[in-house]
Amino acid sequence: MPFALYVLALAVFAQGTSEFMLSGLIPDIAADFQVSVPAAGALTSAFAAGMIVGAPLMALLSRRWPRRRALLVFLVAFLLVHVVGAVTTSFAVLLATRVVAALANAGFLAVALATAAAMVAPDAKGRATSVLLGGTTLACIAGVPAGAVLGQEWGWRSAFWAVAAVSVPAVLTLVRSVPAGPTGDGAAGGTPGTPGVRAEVRALQRPRLWVALLLAALVNGATFCTFTYLAPLVTGVTGFGAAGVPVVLALFGIGSFAGVTAGGRLADRRPRAVLAVGGAALLVGWAAFALTASNAVATVGWVLVQGTLSFAVGSTLIAQVLYAAVEAPTLGGGFATAALNVGAAVGPWWGGLALAAGFGYRAPLWVSALLVAVALLVGGAAEGMRRRAAGGAGQVPAPSA
């Protein structure tokens, strides 16, 4: 894999840390700004909304720029707003920085996905995607716990400074390592020879692409539905103490990294096998986890297994989006980013509704199982329609009487 891919992954690591680290910083932020905890929680909601809206929007707006310039603009903007967030004394300004950071993050990831796919062989998009998304999984393993420790020792602002500091070497290395290839529409002032907006929009109308986007949103929704409520599950049902929560979260992160790595090796060669077998195993795993969550050994095992399966299947689906959107490289990456974040927002919301309805801390696990079941039904129906269409196209008409 090209060295530039790992530079992009470093930036994605910083951005993933920023996205998830607030879960451990919200109480301190609320106390510092003298706002309620739910009000401080709006910082997370604002980031999620910015990612969903910003991914296709920023991808579209950056079409006129070469890829390296687009990546640098988004990454520098992301860095600067974290500096502003670290020094501000206004909660409104901090909230605004989260929205801008999300827009920059969404734009960067959309262009980075297109750049990663363009830097490798046409049949290696899965491996390129796994390297890029590996930055997010490493954020879960190392970045988020480190942010929590910094927040406890030196205050929540130190975590914002750390994200900005990690972004600096990515900016400097990106200038020299990432090729200044095309992003935009040649007819609109970008690099000649790249597809125009209308051509990309037409390419996005393919059913295969929308099925892959829907499946990616469902699987990621299942993943973050459980991940969001993993702490109360392991303390309230499994019986671990508070000290065991970081260990369980780290295990999930280790599994996610293993899943992305394995998915990257298989997504290009046997994607249907990964999705069919991995998806079925994922469904069984969520249900089994829900049934055995009171057992400490089973919980530890399922956290690791489900983290692996979730990200193996999820990264394979994102690779399928890039294959389906080969004629819409910029907007395809934007919609892939949006799909991941729709899942990351909707899954925890539905899990929260189940908790609010009084179904207990196992409920998010059952919601995760339901989301994967829906994904399998949709995927199975789409595959059946594809095979019928292929069979019908290959049949020889019977001779007329």
Give a structural overview.
This protein has 401 residues and is an all-alpha fold. The chain has helices spanning 3-21, 26-33, 37-61, 67-87, 91-119, 125-154, 156-177, 197-203, 207-228, 230-238, 244-266, 271-292, 296-324, 329-356, 363-394. It is globular, with a radius of gyration of 21 Å. The chain starts with a helix and ends in a 7-residue tail after the last helix. Mean pLDDT is 81; it is low at 184-193 and 395-401.
Tell me the fraction of residues in β-strands, as a range. Answer: under 5%
Oligomeric status: single chain
Query: What shape does the CA trace take?
Result: globular
Name the helicity range: over 70%
Low-confidence stretches are: 184-193, 395-401
Compact description:
With 401 residues, the protein is mainly alpha-helical. The protein has helices at residues 3-21, 26-33, 37-61, 67-87, 91-119, 125-154, 156-177, 197-203, 207-228, 230-238, 244-266, 271-292, 296-324, 329-356, 363-394.
